[in-house]
Amino acid sequence: MDRVTIASFNVKNLIGAEKEYYKFQIYTEEEHAWKEAWLADQIVTMDADIVGFQEIFEEKALRDVIEEADEIGEESNEDVIPDRSKRYRKKAIFRKLKYTGYRDAALAFAPNVNDGEPGQRRPGVALLSRFGFVETPEIIQDLPEPLDIPFQDMGGGDGGFYRFSRLSRPILKARVPMGKEVVTVFNCHLKSKLGEFVRPEGAEFAPESDLAEYDAVGRALGSARAAMRRMAEAWVLRREIVAELEAGRPVIVMGDFNDSEHAVSSEIIAGEKPFKNYSWMLRHNAKASNDRYSKEENEQIQAEISAVRLHSAEKLFVKKSLRDMVYTSAFGGVFESVDQIYLSRHFVPEAGGKLGAMEYFSVFNDHLTDGSHEDAPYNKLASDHGQIMVHLALNDSEGETR
């Protein structure tokens, strides 16, 4: 196995026909058939070895899409791939055109523990792998113990804490064989930017949700709650990432972060970026103005931070290609990347990685329409997210790219 492709795909509310997922929202038979066909076409176009899916309500609905993708791809192979009688069948172009398929692939589905009755459904995530899984994938959503995040009041006293016991959506953690290595792959879908409002006991709805009685301050607090939850979820994911890295395992993280690369939640997941030089910084316990970290301590700090840091595939691509704009989401005139794939240093040669290197980064976003555009309802049947795919070249045992 010389090359591996990894993709992230937010499908936007995949469920069977005539099933109410959110309040009064369903797909007719015709709408569902259209959506299934569109998703299948996208899967055929990407033809990725590993795909992380978000917004999956039902495993069967996803399996149906994958099955349709295989039917489309195999039919295409019949038309465009030369048979053994053709002397030109080994041309490189036909390797690119051939659809590999998922007949023997493994699929892991993580349902959402917050899933409810029709109209109150909550989506999960899934991971499709042509290489299978080394062991049963793990679902992370309910925490074994509530996480209390303490705060210190700016006046120095107790600032209370934020308690967190369950993620809004599951994180799927799987160990996937890639060549001679086993890579830990995380697929996530962090809390959205939609405001989180508290419904008073006995009330039919939260007051802030009544737009006819617009509460600007209350809705701003709802956005603050959503941001705090998203960052707490990012920290839970970060804790899992660091545990894998410290165990010496390569890591790939993908999914819908619901934030751009430079947002705090994304930076939590990726880890700190080391400063150029810590020897000019005052020590944490400085007793004098010249009490700074030594050159030896600077090297130690640099190494320890870099060892557990992740690298944005998008940023590596932009840096390599000089392209200045990649986006996977468009709404209200704002084009940004909220879907991400992060790689551990094992896949970044300039960070000392020897497992492989990213050759290319694909973005499938031609279908996106701005949420303020008159064609935006089309996003219901397609997706309101672009798909992203990383192309990795693996190294052989001697560290050479094959």
Give an account of the 3D structure.
Helices cover 26% and strands 28% of the residues. By secondary structure, the protein is α+β, with helices and mostly antiparallel strands. The protein folds into two domains: 3-196 and 224-271 and 312-394, Deoxyribonuclease I, Chain A, CATH 3.60.10.10; 277-307, no CATH class. The radius of gyration is 23 Å and the shape is globular.
Going by CATH, the homologous superfamily of the largest domain would be: Endonuclease/exonuclease/phosphatase
- DSSP helix count? 7
If you average the pLDDT, what whole number results? 89
End-to-end C-alpha gap: 9 Å
In CATH, the topology of the largest domain is named Deoxyribonuclease I, Chain A
Q: What is the CATH architecture descriptor of the largest domain?
A: 4-Layer Sandwich
Strand order, largest beta sheet: 3-4-2-1-14-13
Number of domains: 2
The string of secondary-structure elements, in order, is EHEHHEEEEEHEHHEHEEEEE
What can be said about the biggest beta sheet?
6 strands, mixed
Q: Over all CA atoms, what is the radius of gyration?
A: 23 Å
Structural class: alpha+beta
Which segments are poorly predicted (pLDDT under 50) over 5 or more consecutive residues? Answer: none
Morphology call: globular
Number of strands: 14
- The residue fraction in helices comes out at 25-40%
- The level-1 CATH class of the largest domain: Alpha Beta
Question: In percent terms, what proportion of residues is strand?
Answer: 25-35%
